[in-house]
Amino acid sequence: MTATAAAKGAAGSAAWADALLLSFAQGGYVQAHPAILQQAEPFLDLSGEDIRKSLYLTTDASGEELCLRPDLTIPVARDYLASERAGKPAGFCYLGPVFRYRGGRPSEFLQAGIESFGRQDRAAADAEMLALALEATAAFGLKDVEIRTGDVALFNALIDALDLYPVWRRRLIKDFNRKVSLTEDIERLTLATAPGHNEYEGVLAALAGSDRKAALALVTDLMSIAGTTNVGGRTVDEIADRFLEQSTLKGGALPRDAVAIIKRFLAIAGDPDESVTQLRALASDARLDLAAAIDQLESRIGFMVARGIDTKLTRFSTSFGRGLDYYTGFEFELHAKSNGVEPLVGGGRYDGLMTQLGSATPIPAVGFSVWIEALTQLGLSSAQGSAA
């Protein structure tokens, strides 16, 4: 690319981004301006693995760990919680640089987006976010995009209804959120057998089937007595989880009937309405109470239709997840059909994040982020193709 072409591309990117921000503001979303330098702890504790390993970290004179913001959702949420509007319905838009290590690509790049807090009409708010995300891609000249959706709340409801040991529940949900091979891990847990006698057998037997709080308390006390806070780089939390996993596996493998149900669940994909039918059939056959989660999905689909979204062109998958630990429900990504690897827009519902960030009461939250760089490149290619 020549210098002139690069300059035109940068100018086009800025113009498109500014127009996008203006459209968000006209829709009632107030522009937010969170600080670039942020406390690192929320990102280390609450983000997905991909973000955690790409952070730019530093430490101030007091020893507090800080980072350049890798994303804008958590900073906007924290500013909202510190404001007078905390707990009340409020919507914010943003446009600014974020910082992540991305291999051979620039570590600083523009991100735009919307965050909506406090709305109790969750299904309607979810549909609004998807509709606004589609408007964002259309603003860059892209109308033919692939819509991928999922709902982590459905998976969580399934695991809860199966009444598994707490350690299995955490293990499966962690795998789902982090985009590792969930099916592979399910197979491993299915075939798991108890190890032979070892010096920890009594402790493992005492922990079998216990909750994480009890295990963490025990491990913390034992490590305090030993005068240590970590072993081999593992934290107390990680060691407690390992003890729980080993104690539970001593009691036998993941039940095969539960495995069959999970596999059937994860195979559901395609048209959203057909997926609802399959989910209700699964719940009925397995005698599981998934009604609330399925009803929420069906309600969301109805609001999507009301927003003019052609759900026949939307792919729903029960196994779809975005790899961020704080998502609690609806998740979505928009991809270019010509290059579907990297998302152009991604978002979802994160109701649990607000209490994790310090809110005394739960606050519904949903939003999305727009990757300006990717949209600009595709928008310019589309414009050049049309001109030719």
UniProtKB/TrEMBL annotation:
It holds the Pfam family tRNA-synt_His. This is ATP phosphoribosyltransferase regulatory subunit. Coiled coil: none annotated. GO terms for molecular function: glycosyltransferase activity; histidine-tRNA ligase activity. The lineage of its organism: Bacteria, Pseudomonadati, Pseudomonadota, Alphaproteobacteria, Hyphomicrobiales. Keywords: Amino-acid biosynthesis, Glycosyltransferase, Histidine biosynthesis, Transferase. The keyword Lipid biosynthesis does not apply. It comes from Bradyrhizobium archetypum. GO terms for biological process: histidyl-tRNA aminoacylation; L-histidine biosynthetic process. Residues 16-207, 252-375 form the Class II Histidinyl-tRNA synthetase (HisRS)-like catalytic core domain. GO terms for cellular component: cytoplasm. L-histidine binds at residues 71-73, 100, 111, 115, 322, 326-327. Transmembrane segments: none annotated. The keyword Cytoplasm does not apply. It comes from the Bacteria. InterPro entries: aa-tRNA-synth_II/BPL/LPL, HisRS-like_core, HisRS/HisZ.
